[in-house]
UniProtKB/TrEMBL annotation:
GO cellular component, one term: cytosol
GO biological process: D-ribose metabolic process; pentose-phosphate shunt, non-oxidative branch
The protein's annotated pathway: Carbohydrate degradation; pentose phosphate pathway; D-ribose 5-phosphate from D-ribulose 5-phosphate (non-oxidative stage): step 1/1
A single MF term (Gene Ontology): ribose-5-phosphate isomerase activity
Organism: Methanolacinia petrolearia (strain DSM 11571 / OCM 486 / SEBR 4847)
Protein name from the UniProt record: Ribose-5-phosphate isomerase A
HAMAP family: Rib_5P_isom_A (MF_00170)
SUBUNIT field: Homodimer.
Length: 226
């Protein structure tokens, strides 16, 4: 489909940014999948010498399938580049992430990286951030969290499993709660308000990386860089 071609163009472009000796954050989701596919080709065809730090079980399992050597943040607390996806990206490069419930570990890896490369198709671009903000929450704190979100004007809904009865459990063993505030006027303020709530691991608003972010938007003919 056109979307798959767009994601592939974005992912392949990002993979070409990786040079020998780099430590690379590997994000979660279907668009980064294409970056991994290209990295795998470069490792086997060019002997690309790189190390990947994954952001989820999905990313690490895929990277292993692709023969991408892996390590952890404890070994590589500074990364050259993190390649990741996003769900919404505004013109200031602020984002909503977390569709894959991986935003907490993705934030750690993005923070460790000198350059945050976000790969997406055009459907992710928007004028104003809006819609559900995923939040990883300690099960212990759920009821209090839901109360605080409502007091802030949001509508919380805990993410339920599809092939699992009961709530989704994140790779770190917590709940994921989608909090809808409609259109978000001040993403930075909302991000800190949510992240400061007791029991919150992290929310999917990513506004703190804009000065070291390169957004690669794929389309069926190639990419646009922001
Ligand atoms: O969960 C996440 O933040 C992922 O990066 C995700 O939002 C991107 O997924 P996609 O590339 O499959 O759209």
């Amino acid at each position: 489909s056109d979307i798959d071609i767009s994601k592939k163009n974005a992912g392949y472009f990002a993979a070409e940014l990786i040079q020998d000796g780099m430590a690379v954050g590997l994000g979660t989701g279907s668009t980064v999948f294409y970056a991994m596919e290209r990295l795998s080709e470069r490792i086997s065809s060019e002997g690309l010498d790189m190390i990947g730090v994954p952001t989820s079980f999905q990313a690490s399992m895929r990277a292993r399938e692709y023969g991408i050597p892996l390590s952890v943040i404890d070994e590589y607390p500074s990364l050259d580049i993190a390649i990741d996806g996003a769900d919404k990206i505004d013109s200031s490069l602020r984002m909503i992430k977390g569709r894959g419930a991986a935003q907490t570990l993705e934030r750690c890896v993005a923070d460790a990286a000198d350059l945050f490369v976000v790969v997406a198709d055009e459907s992710k671009m928007c004028e104003k951030l809006h819609g559900p903000v995923p939040v990883e929450v300690l099960p212990f704190a759920l009821g209090l969290f839901e109360r605080r979100i409502r007091e802030l004007g949001g509508i919380p809904s805990i993410r339920l499993g599809v092939k699992k009865d009961g709530p989704v459990i994140t790779d770190s063993g917590n709940f994921e709660v989608d909090c809808d505030f409609g259109f978000i006027d001040e993403p930075e303020l909302l991000q800190s308000a949510i992240n400061n709530m007791p029991g919150v691991l992290s929310c999917g608003l990513f506004t703190e990386f804009t000065d070291r972010t390169k957004v690669v938007i794929g389309n069926e003919n190639g990419v646009n860089i922001f």
